[in-house]
Specification:
Distance between the termini of chain B: 19 Å
Number of domains of chain A: 1
Structural class of chain B: mainly alpha
Helix content of chain B: over 70%
Largest interface: A-B, 44 and 41 residues
Oligomer: heterodimer
Shape of chain B: globular
Number of helices of chain A: 11
Largest sheet of chain A: 2 strands, antiparallel
Largest sheet of chain B: 2 strands, antiparallel
Strand order of the largest sheet of chain A: 1-2
Structural class of chain A: mainly alpha
Strand content of chain A: under 5%
């Protein structure tokens, strides 16, 4: 009994820590979904673009991937602002379907750019500390999973405080709650949406670095992250940062526990998240913690 | 007078479409270059997919992101069938039937989702199936490495002409089916659902049943088109069968051509086929250009080319011509 409990502790801790990565990815998606009721289907690919960007900077300057964020985050922020301003805001006014299709187009463009610039081979952000592990009692924790958790917590708290304390954050919350009223209070919804998308892109840059430290990535590996992060915000419910956090943990646990209980089967590990998203969607489309 | 003109015009359009069909069917017999037959084959397959996607997105209001699931399932059913001795002709129908059965099974959960939730719910399915078929191998030897591919056995003797006729028949059937549906009670109900689901429900439209019928029809014909494609390219892998390009093709064709119009997918499928063969040698650039075109079309002309033509009044042109010609006859 003692042995199996210890055996179970390892995947549980790993799942919770891995959940941090899903939280960072999902927060960007959640912000856009919350404000515009639009699923940015390009989000997974933007995360992978973030990984590639960090990889390129690392290869060029030889600096730590986290340092590359000093350039990456502002760059992604500006890029996101203009994508929203010139593409999504226009299609969004036509219909939600048009915006969805535009996002799909962006997803294809980002994927093909990654493929043209960085070739379709598997990459990973290789650092000296990437494979380091340390033991807490009987459980062995790898540093990269811990970094995921710290990253998830930091981005979540930063975003939450931003939405609560700054003018822009309050404007984004207001526009997401009731657009016409917000507009009458002197908030320009289009500008607010542009900033929301820009922040989501900055989150994608951070998520890209964490993702690159954890898994191998190729230009097409974005779509599983889209589906997982969609599942996370479905479980977590809209507008609830804590809910998103719990959703991320649940997804991390599903993956690691599923793999552990099935004896390390790749199949279970790959299919379990999809199945979970589908079941949650079918049973409670508005989310478990959703309104 | 005007009504009679319209009737005459209707008979004229029927005549023209039958004539086009006959000419297209004669192509393999009169020694058209094989590369042309190849292009047209792809065009017909894309056309059938685009027509069905248009039926779902343009007339039922279901942004269905899982055509890859139908294509892949139908292709796999046929390929596995040929390994256990089922002739591919039976496999073709069986594949389409399996695709429709899959649509029936998932209909209950996915129709509970609305709008954007439906889109994502259906996006999950091909990904899950791809993961499943990477490991599941019912017949044949254990596969080495990743990707459980199957070849389609016993289709080597089929000429390109025969495959061409098959694709032509499927494309013509897809156009005909949409044409009939739109003029039947089903089409009326579907457009009512698309425009306002709640109002349609309170007016006595059985939403679930109508959505299900159009979903099943679309799944069946998409499955047929997919299986026909895998007769032409006789090997299937999870990565290819459930590839996102099976969604991209009909989506692009419908959006570029004009969603919610009968002629839109035809125009769009022609453009998409042209682009695909034009850009075939450029690999990732091809995808890049397709993505740019998709975004530009959505931003600049959301109604597609058919919408643009309608706006400039191009459709009234034949009618005007017809009236003018008749006026001249009456005068003389």
């Amino acid at each position: 009994m003692e042995v199996s409990l210890v055996g179970l502790a390892s995947p549980i801790i790993r799942g919770i820590l891995l959940g941090g990565l899903y939280v960072v990815i999902a927060l960007g998606l959640s912000l856009i979904f919350g404000v515009m009721k639009l699923i940015n289907v390009a989000h997974g690919d933007l995360v992978i673009l973030g990984s590639y960007f960090a990889w390129a900077i690392m290869g060029w300057l030889g600096i730590d991937p986290f340092l590359s964020l000093v350039v990456g985050v502002p760059l992604f922020f500006i890029l996101g602002f203009f994508v929203q301003k010139f593409i999504i805001n226009r299609t969004f006014r036509i219909s939600l379907d048009a915006a969805l299709i535009a996002c799909f187009g962006i997803s294809i463009i980002v994927q093909s750019i990654c493929q043209i610039v960085w070739t379709p081979f598997n990459r990973s952000l290789t650092t000296s500390y990437q494979l380091q592990t340390f033991a807490v009692g009987p459980v062995i924790i790898s540093l990269r999973y811990l970094l995921n958790f710290i990253g998830g917590l930091t981005v979540m708290i930063a975003l939450r405080e931003f939405l609560r304390r700054t003018y822009l954050g309050k404007a984004i919350s207001a526009a997401s709650q009731n657009e016409p009223v917000a507009e009458r209070m002197g908030i320009n919804p289009n500008r607010t949406y542009s900033f929301a998308f820009a922040i989501a892109m900055a989150c994608a840059a951070v998520a890209g670095v964490l993702q690159g430290l954890t898994f191998y990535f190729s230009p097409t590996s974005g779509s599983p992250f889209l589906i997982i992060s969609f599942g996370v915000i479905i479980i977590g419910g809209l507008g609830s940062m804590a809910g998103t956090f719990i959703g991320g943990m649940i997804f991390g646990l599903t993956q690691t526990l599923g793999a552990y209980l099935s004896g390390g089967s790749m199949m279970v590990q790959m299919i379990a998240p999809y199945l979970l998203v589908f079941v949650v969607l079918a049973v409670r489309p508005q989310g478990i913690f959703g309104r | 007078m005007v009504v009679r003109d319209k009737m005459k015009l209707l008979r004229l359009t029927t005549l023209v479409s039958v004539a086009v069909l006959v000419v297209l069917a004669l192509f393999p017999l009169i020694g058209i270059p094989l590369s042309w037959l190849n292009y047209l084959f792809s065009f017909f397959i894309y056309l059938a997919l685009a027509n069905m996607w248009n039926l779902l997105a343009g007339y039922t209001g279901l942004i269905c992101l899982c055509p890859a699931a139908f294509v892949g399932l139908a292709g796999y059913t046929m390929a596995i069938g040929t390994h256990v001795g089922v002739p591919f002709q039976v496999g073709l129908i069986a594949g389409a039937a399996v695709a429709a059965l899959f649509a029936l099974i998932i209909s209950y959960p996915v129709f509970r989702m609305k709008g954007i939730y439906f889109a994502i719910g259906t996006l999950v399915l091909p990904e899950a199936l791809k993961a499943w078929f990477n490991f599941w191998r019912p017949v044949g030897n254990e596969y080495q490495g990743m990707g459980a591919g199957y070849s389609v056995v016993g289709v080597a003797g089929i000429t390109l002409g025969e495959k061409y006729w098959l694709a032509l028949a499927i494309a013509a059937a897809s156009i005909f089916v949409v044409h009939i549906i739109l003029r039947a009670r089903l089409g009326l109900g579907l457009t009512a659902i698309r425009d306002n689901e709640n109002t349609a429900a309170s007016s006595g439209v059985n939403i679930f049943r109508l959505k299900l019928s159009s979903f099943l029809i679309a799944a069946f014909i998409m499955g047929l088109a997919g299986a026909a494609y895998y007769i032409h390219v006789p090997s299937i892998q999870p990565k290819g069968g459930f590839n996102i390009s099976w969604l991209l093709l009909p989506l692009m064709a419908t959006v570029i051509g004009g969603e919610g119009s009968e002629e839109g997918p035809i125009i769009g499928a022609a453009i998409v086929t042209f682009l695909r063969f034009l850009l075939a040698d450029y690999g990732a650039w091809s995808l890049f250009i397709q993505g740019i075109i998709l975004v530009v079309v959505v931003v600049v002309m959301p109604q597609g080319i058919a919408g643009l033509l309608r706006r400039v009044g191009a459709y009234r042109f034949p009618q005007k011509l017809f009236q003018a010609a008749e006026g001249k006859i009456h005068k003389t």
